[in-house]
Amino acid sequence: MPHYEVVIIGSGFAGLCMGARLKQAGIHDFLILEKDKEFGGTWRVNQYPGCACDVPSHLYSFSFLQNPEWTRKYAPQRELLAYTVKAAQDLGLMPHLRLDTALLSAEYDEAAGAWRLHTSRGEMIAKHLVTGMGALGRPKLPTLPGLESFQGKTFHSQQWDHGYDLQGKRVAVIGTGASAIQFVPEIAPKLAQLDLYQRTPPWILPRPDRAISKAERWLLRHFSISRWAYRALNYVRNEWRYIAFGKQPALMRATQKLALAYMHKHIRDPELRRKLTPDYTMGCKRILLVNDYYQTLTRSNVAVLGNGIREVRAHSVIDGDGQERAVDAIIFATGFDLEQALGPLELKGRGGLSLQQASRDGLDAYKGTTLPGFPNFYMIAGPNTGLGHNSMIYMIESGVNYILQAIQMTQLQRIKSLEVKADAAGEYNRQIQQKLKGTVWNSGCKSWYLNSRGKNLTLWPGFTFEYRRIMKKFDADQYHARFD
Ligand code: N01
Questions:
Q1: Structural domain that includes position 350
Q2: Of 155, 199, 332, 393, which is best to mutate to test ligand 1, by the most ligand atoms within 8 angstroms of its C-beta?
Q3: What is this structure's pTM?
Q4: Average pLDDT, stretch 186-191?
Q5: CA distance linking residue 386 with residue 392, whole number of Å
């Protein structure tokens, strides 16, 4: 049976970052498994019209592979995907990628000090198992009365059917989150009618997007100091916002005023303004950056419906007011199921402890990375490492740095297994939940940041440099080390 030092699950930014850092450290005995036929993670999977990053690209990219060629401040999906492909090539990761290979289950073999993996292409052994699967991989679909009887086209924003011609169609879009606000302006001009079902209005600010000029690109290409300076500028611009998100949510009031002024500038109809005005503190849900959404909502072929869906029929939707609205297609922009983020993955740790058992109240991971009962198992960007204010790539790099040190330590000291102490994980999570109490994310709105029991297992309650600091050095004293 093939045996690897490290097996990484997922080939998005997280998986590629782990692979790159292993190679830089001289560890070449690893695989990156990707369940799909192509690699690239979220920026390959999400291909809906208008898909783009809402974090500046010069920051939303690897620090060790900066890209002077971004054509816009907020790069479109195709550029992000091209960057990922080039990164995999330039960093020498292609031979390590195994596409169309899904990890089905894995169990920890205590005697061997390794994981036995069952993949869709056979079995393998990994001394260390690292997941970089991302939290936003499993589409969440609403349960709507009568949906099964609908005869038209349906798809989720993440599974966009580009073969379906939207020209002249009547379409219901459900959801007004980060994905919907990007594709609604793109598709509305093509449609006969767009019915936008909004459950909660988002807070919206203009996206300060712009083209990066040829001269700027030349500068960024030839002077690494300009790349670092521009990256640092973007980092600081985003990072200081944590003061409002995490420490003083009352500061959001000033930005709320700006957002309302922006909305009023584009929306004249008082009834539509009322519908689009959020009633929760800005930042509690993700703040959305977009320049053409409100304008789109004033089009004569667009209706914003705020009273929900009563029923779906074969060729129509009955809205919350009981009005029947004929539609050819329903597009779900209803987000992702975070509680199922690790999906059907059957992971059995020490003593046969399953991931499901260990995560009954959500995963109490240590530093978002390791779990008691799961030796030699690491998560990149795991629980409570998500951000509402800065670049996830920074968090990914912080996590990968920590995992790399753990792996190197097992090699150097001939350690059979490393397992985080249960009391270390427990205390860490108690502190995280305590810190979250004063943040805007726990200020009362319902969002995907909170699980079904209202616990925030998604976001990092701190400055990102604080996470980098706690991940800088692998704290072996918080781990049980077992030797042969
Ligand atoms: O999903 P969402 P998304 N009936 O969960 C509504 C990242 N991202 O795919 O607010 C009716 O944000 C739901 O309503 P409500 C980013 O982190 C990044 O848009 O729950 N409506 C909401 O309006 C983002 O946060 C980029 O009341 C229902 C919408 O559907 C995350 O992905 C771009 C419903 C879901 O919004 C997810 O974004 C795009 C129901 N049963 C996405 N269920 C970047 O640019 C849900 N809704 C980096």
A1: 3-138+337-483
A2: 199
A3: 0.96
A4: 98
A5: 7
